[in-house]
Amino acid sequence: MRVQLARRRRAFTASALAAAVLLVTAARMAPPAASIADAIMRGDTAQVRLLIRQGADVNAAQADGMTALHWAATRGDASVSKMLVAAGARVDAFTRNGNYTPLHLAAKSGRAEAVKVLLNAGADVKAATTTGGATALHFAAADGDPETVIALLDKGAPVDSRETAYAQTPLMWAASYNRVKAVNALLAHGANIEATSKIEDIAARERTDRSLLTARARRVAAIKAAEAPLTTPGAPGGAAFVANAIASADGAGSGGRGGVATQATGAAAPAGAPAMPTAAKATDAKPTDAKPTDATVARKAADAKPADPKTAETKPIVAAKQESGPLIGGTNGQPGDTTRAATGFSGRGPSYGELIGNKGGLTALLFAVREGNVESVDALLKAGAKINHVSDGDKTSPLLMATINGRFDMAKMLMEKGADVKLLSEAGASPLYSVINIQWAPKSLYPQPTAQLQQKTSYLELMEMMLKAGADVNVRLSKHLWYMSFNFDLLGVNTTGATPFWRAAYGTDVDAMKLLLKYGADPTIPTIKPSGRLPGDDAPDDDNGGKDPSGVPPIPAGGPGVYPLQAAAGVGYGEGFAANSHRHAPDGWLPSVKFLIEELHIDVNQRDFNGYNAIHHAAARGDTVLIAYLMSKGGDLQAISRKGQTTVDMANGPVQRVPPFEETVLYLERLGAKNSHKCKSC
Q1: What is the domain partition of the chain in residue ranges?
Q2: Which CATH number fits domain 35-191: 1.25.40.20, 1.10.10.10, 1.20.210.10, 1.10.3720.10?
Q3: At how many degrees (to 10) do helices 180-188 and 374-382 cross?
Q4: What is the rounded CA–CA span in Å between residue 173 and residue 139?
Q5: pLDDT one-digit tens code per residue, 274-315
């Protein structure tokens, strides 16, 4: 009996072991997850067929959500796509990043046959990605294959569908990528040639961002204060103190009006912030009142709903005295000042968002012009696109768009086809001004457009063509151009009110000045003094007790700002970092100033709204040659600016990080100019 039991045990053990071996072998032979997708990604069609016969999951996805059908669509393999669909592959599968369907990827790659297979299998022609909300037709238009475009349209793809990021249509994408055949296919199927993209209100977005930053700063300050340890009896801290500090900043607490700093951070809570719950005075709080839950209470108080950005009062985040610095797009912002650079707002003068205003609202023609796509521009114009349809955002015309981007050859073509040279943007920018502006575009801190360096049409040729066509030679900017310095401005001058002649003088371009004079330019028109406190403005310096020692009559906002003579002499160098950015005609300083003084009889001692004369600006650049010339023509070496700066002071490091020009300082001192020894970089 025992022998039989032992035999049975051995037989059972052997059977179990054999079964286990079979299971392991089967597991090893079973295709791994997403094996079909992996095979198609490698282009191994034979392995795909084998895996399907073995029963591999045809819908298994890779880590990013790419299925076998996604890869077949990407590769444009129509036969494999058919095989997968027949095996049960889902045409509505989507990736984890962006929700791309196989149809999106086939259209993106211009795989017309694969697109047709997917459409016949029921793929949703209207499906949109979650990153931008683009449809298959958008991708097909960008790729440019007309057969793919037509296949999608024939299956009901809306010809004017809009992606969600910028409300652009497939025609706009085709025009942007210069896909002429796709442009024509879309137009043949009724695409709206005058449709416009979304308008973005940058000023409103800036207000929203500022409101959120304000709320964030308040919350951080409140939490830090609430969590600060009470090291001495009666020390301020806890939720009651924080709530009171916030209420005080809002004008609702014991501290009165806004701007009261919390002791925990030393940062002033911004005025104009939304009202917070009323709390007991900080002095009423006792050491025993501080409980472990105080931080939680403070967080709840700090997390109150932020101000409505539409009505939020414009206030700086930190209510501290701010140093003046060079303009950022026309506003205050010193390099390294991340608060002001991030918000674009300093509490003085227009903010960066206000300078931009609205942008967007472009037609397909404007997109094509911006990118310099001559073929698409020609196709759109032949199809009836309006050559003078300005953008809905800031009223930029196709001709202005071409000149802003240095597309001189295209601008010439547009003019030959009837573009209006008199159309201005909301900032008062004209095509004529924009030609000279891009020709001497300031150097940027990052790559910028350089199309103007690759044109057959010269800037002077294009300018004269515009002048002959009736361009207003004395048209003035109504506000500083935010794109003049490509976002981060080091020039230290506001160009509101500038004319094309002023811009030519600023570029020390004598040839351009002569051309403009030939057509009636007025060389005496200055910029306009902007409103609000600006860096380098005419406010008296504290060192002078608030007095203005210049002897120059006060100039109201809207009055004359900077004249062409100061522009040619180097305005802005003494106020900031213009030397790092300003571009001008080579060796043009002396010739341009001589031209203005000797041929146009401009007063050598003309003063700008800051009280600077040409010698001040020449000294700020260390230009002793120009100083000597100006003095030979009667220039006043002893002139003092509204801030009390002498000509020597301008050469002696008037702002931080601008080293003094020692030779110029010694030269001016020998001639009798006063050195106030106020170097800020010494």
Answers
A1: 1-30, 35-191, 202-320, 544-682
A2: 1.25.40.20
A3: 20
A4: 8
A5: 232 233 333 333 333 334 344 443 344 334 443 443 333 333
